Structure formats: structure tokens, C-alpha cells
């Protein structure tokens, strides 16, 4: 079965009265099989006018699958190819995962698509219905809760949260010092967060540079895509304390604790001395 695939070790021993020899060899076992879709794979995709939508097809396959997309038109069994050139779409190809990125310019873009995945072991296909939806609203609250040396905690909330249409948020950020031009179109920095299921609204943006100024903005995400971004906000991470500073703080803290402890020991002696004088 597929679960038998993996890495195995073969060990061989040879021994005599004067010598013992041992060899170990790793064997990589790959179980080939035709592409299969995950049971919980998407059967619907969503987009909104004037936005860009991703319709994704993902399989398990060995060797990796090759993909083709069809736009289903007309009656049953009719298909139109070539999706690669369909309304300026872009194909994003990854191992066993293929995404068609579609600019949603008019209602005719919506409809039924067919994803075909194949390798030398066989072929499989899946119908995905691309449905019209609405863009999420811009987050109503973005507040900076705590700024540290390498992270910032943000409180992000949206009025759509109660309808449970929001599935997450994207924080787009860039290093920016006074006088630097703003270039959101070319920024490589963004982080996607899944919406907390427990009602919490605090999200941590980490792996930041120490003592650096950042400008950021936030967008909400639903199944159809991203909202417009919030207004820009800025913050500066704190400086990292030096090891000597941390050592000095530790020594001062220890000295205060020791002094307090000595006071508790000497206080009864003072009372005893006064009593003896009387």
C-alpha cells in the first residue's frame, strides 16, 4: 500500500575471530500510484468582480502529476480548452498542486471548470464550480498592542466576523525610514493569518529586525479573496539589550533580594537588643 513507502535501512554484519565488519545502506521505497484527490478537497471556488481569484487543484500522486484545465461550456460532455489563455489567466504550478489565477473582469468568467491530473499510472479529474461572491469589508479595527524587539502584537477585528464570512487576515509590511518612498506594489513582505476560532483577535507579526521602523497595512480575507487595505500605520521595534546590560540588571536584582533577606534576619536581633537594655 502507499503507507509502505519511505526510507528503510539494510544492515549487514561479517565477523571473524580477528575482525568484525558492518555495513549500513539506506533504501528509499517509492510506491507509485495514479493521482487522487483528497476527500475534503474543494468543489467550489469563489471570486468577485474586479478582483483576482485562485481556483486550485491538488492531488496525491507518485510520480508527481501533470495538470490540464478545461472550461466546461454548453451541455454535458462539452469542454473548451485552453484555460491557460482564458481571460488573461495565469497558471501557478507546484508539485502535485496547480492553481489557475483568474482576473474577474465580468460575469462570464464564473462557471464550471474541470481539473485533470495525470501521470504514468493513470488519470483523474474533478469538477470545480467557480461562483460569484462579494469582497470582504476592510477591517474595522487595527490596533498596536505591544511592540518588542522582534515582533508586534496587533488587535485585528472586522464587522464581518459575526457573519463568519472572514477566514483570515493579511498583514503587508515594509521597512521604512523617514524620507523613504513607499512602494507597496513591490514589497516582498506579507504574512497571512487564519482567523482565530476561539474569539481572540490578537495576531503576532514576528521575525522582525531589531530597532527598525516598519509601515504596515491590513486586509481581510474571505473565500473569495482579499478586501481593500486599511490605512498605513508605522511602528519601530525596540533595541535589543546588550549582554552587559542584562547582566547588570540581574546583579542589581540579586542584590536587592539579598538585602531584603538580610533585613528579615537582622530585625529580630534589634528587638532582642532593645529588650536586654531594658
Q: In brief, what are we looking at here?
A:
The chain has 278 residues and is mainly β. It is built from one helix and 18 strands.
Descriptive account of the structure:
By secondary structure, the chain is mainly β. The protein folds into 2 domains: 34-132, Immunoglobulins (Immunoglobulin-like), CATH 2.60.40; 141-236, Sandwich (Immunoglobulin-like), CATH 2.60.40. It is 13% helix and 45% strand. It has 1 helix and 18 strands. The strands form 5 sheets. Strands 13, 14, 16, 17 and 18 form a 5-stranded antiparallel beta sheet that branches. The chain has a 4-stranded antiparallel beta sheet with strand order 3-5-8-7, with no helix packed on it. A 4-stranded mixed beta sheet has the order 4-10-9-6, with no helix packed on it. The longest helix has 35 residues, at 243-277. The chain is flat. The protein starts with 5 loop residues before the first strand and ends with a helix. InterPro entries: Cell_Adh-Cytoskel_Orgn (IPR050958), FN3_dom (IPR003961), FN3_sf (IPR036116), Ig-like_dom (IPR007110), Ig-like_dom_sf (IPR036179), Ig-like_fold (IPR013783). This is Neural cell adhesion molecule 2. One of its GO terms (molecular function) is axon guidance receptor activity. Residues 35-129 form the Ig-like domain. Residues 135-240 form the Fibronectin type-III domain.
Amino acid at each position: 500500500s502507499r503507507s509502505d513507502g519511505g526510507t528503510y535501512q539494510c544492515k549487514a554484519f561479517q565477523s571473524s575471530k580477528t575482525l568484525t565488519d558492518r555495513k549500513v545502506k539506506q533504501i528509499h521505497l517509492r510506491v507509485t500510484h495514479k493521482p487522487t484527490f483528497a476527500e475534503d478537497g474543494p468543489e467550489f471556488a469563489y471570486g468577485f468582480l474586479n478582483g483576482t481569484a485562485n481556483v486550485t487543484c491538488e492531488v496525491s500522486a507518485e510520480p508527481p502529476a501533470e495538470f490540464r484545465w478545461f472550461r466546461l461550456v454548453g451541455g454535458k460532455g462539452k469542454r473548451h480548452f485552453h484555460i491557460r489563455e482564458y481571460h488573461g489567466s495565469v497558471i501557478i504550478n507546484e508539485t502535485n498542486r496547480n492553481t489557475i489565477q483568474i482576473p474577474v473582469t465580468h460575469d462570464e468568467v464564473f462557471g464550471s471548470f474541470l481539473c485533470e491530473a495525470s501521470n504514468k499510472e493513470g488519470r483523474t479529474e474533478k469538477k470545480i464550480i467557480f461562483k460569484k461572491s462579494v469582497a470582504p469589508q476592510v477591517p474595522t479595527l487595527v490596533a498596536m498592542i505591544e511592540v518588542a524587539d522582534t515582533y508586534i502584537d496587533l488587535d485585528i477585528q472586522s464587522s464581518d466576523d459575526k457573519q463568519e464570512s472572514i477566514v483570515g487576515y493579511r498583514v503587508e509590511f515594509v521597512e521604512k525610514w523617514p524620507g523613504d518612498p513607499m512602494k507597496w506594489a513591490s514589497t516582498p513582505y506579507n504574512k497571512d493569518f487564519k482567523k482565530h476560532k476561539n474569539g481572540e483577535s490578537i495576531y503576532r507579526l514576528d521575525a522582525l529586525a531589531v530597532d527598525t521602523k516598519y509601515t504596515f497595512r491590513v486586509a481581510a480575507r474571505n473565500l473569495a479573496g482579499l478586501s481593500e487595505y486599511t490605512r498605513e500605520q508605522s511602528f519601530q521595534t525596540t533595541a535589543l539589550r546588550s549582554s552587559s546590560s542584562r547582566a547588570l540588571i540581574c546583579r542589581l536584582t540579586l542584590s536587592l533580594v539579598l538585602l531584603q533577606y538580610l533585613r528579615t534576619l537582622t530585625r529580630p536581633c534589634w528587638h532582642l537588643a532593645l529588650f536586654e537594655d531594658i
